Amino acid sequence: MAVRRIDATERRARLATRHRLHPGHRAADAVDAATGMVCLHGTDPASVYLSAWARVDDFVTTDLDRALYTDRSLVKHMAMRRTVFVFPREILPVVQAGASARVAAAQRRQVVKDVEKAGLHGDGEQWLDEVSGHVLQALSGGREATSSELRAEIPLLDASIDYGIGKSWGGRVPFAPRVLTVLSAEGKVVRASNNGSWRVSRPAWTSTESWLGAGIAPCDEADGVRALVESWLRVFGPGTEADIKWWLGSTLTAVRAALADLDVVEVDLDGRSGYLLADDVEEPAPADPWGVLLPSLDPTVMGWAERDWYLGSYKGDLFDSNGNAGPTAWWDGRIVGTWWQSDSGSVELHLLEDIGVDGRAVLEQEAARLDEWLGGVKVTARFPTPLAKELAAATDRAPSDRSSS
């Protein structure tokens, strides 16, 4: 059987509807948006809300707050690539087995090594187990506490390591956040209430069991990886082995084993071998042209390792040196620019190419819609991109000039 070719146009049509970005295919609510994307990227606190705004009509921040902190149907959890995501609660078992456990093991090894290097204890594993026990005891019974509060009451946790000794950039790094990272990735503690607005991350911690009413159910690692790969293909497919490996933060061996266990078909992605689920090979109906503004680290922007088909030549402008994406402006399934905020908080559009009168009009309307929703509240990306830095330095922009190119 001939291998079917899937071009960039078809991939963009899939993205429009599956990622809930097309106006006719929005998510019902924040939980539906997160479920539809597998998860939402949670490193930038504001981006979680802005990613939901882009996918849910009439979205308000309290809707996501309720899902995170009252209903707890969404949970912040460390997983792929040592990154915090917002997951639907029901998929935590496969996330823990297929991604988080791998992160936890790597972080545990590094903490153990640094504890011994710092001279805190001759047996770093023993030190970590002991301090972890103190933390879990302090958070028992449903108690919530911040990292600072835990350091203040657990002497063993109030330790640090020197780095860059003798260098101008040197300093001391506390172990408390790293211990909490290990416990979080192991599924033992969870980010609970946030002691700040939706734009900042000041989490209190508690035990996973008390927050969710039970611990994360055990799952076999291979089953977890397979479930995550299947979920990725359902939302982001088609994609290459390199795409899946990068997103999952795993190995090619694990990815290939999962693909072998799944019912998939091979497709041609402009000369590269890609994969689709066997029940998902039908070509989607063409979508009307659409535009959207996405925040930094949005799951769509960060969904693939190989991005030329939607990013073009703009990587140097819109990604930092570590591969973190900034805010993006999309027209008909590809990135055509960015958006930013002036000193007054006004949302401004910056296009990197001519997309025609109709495309510009749609994106200007989206900028006005986001401007109204934010109401002058400024959001700051944690990882500014080269173009973001350039635009931030711009001055004296006319109040009526919402867009530039």
TrEMBL record:
It holds the Pfam family AlkZ-like. It comes from the Bacteria. This is Uncharacterized protein conserved in bacteria. It comes from Rhodococcus gordoniae. The lineage of its organism: Bacteria, Bacillati, Actinomycetota, Actinomycetes, Mycobacteriales.
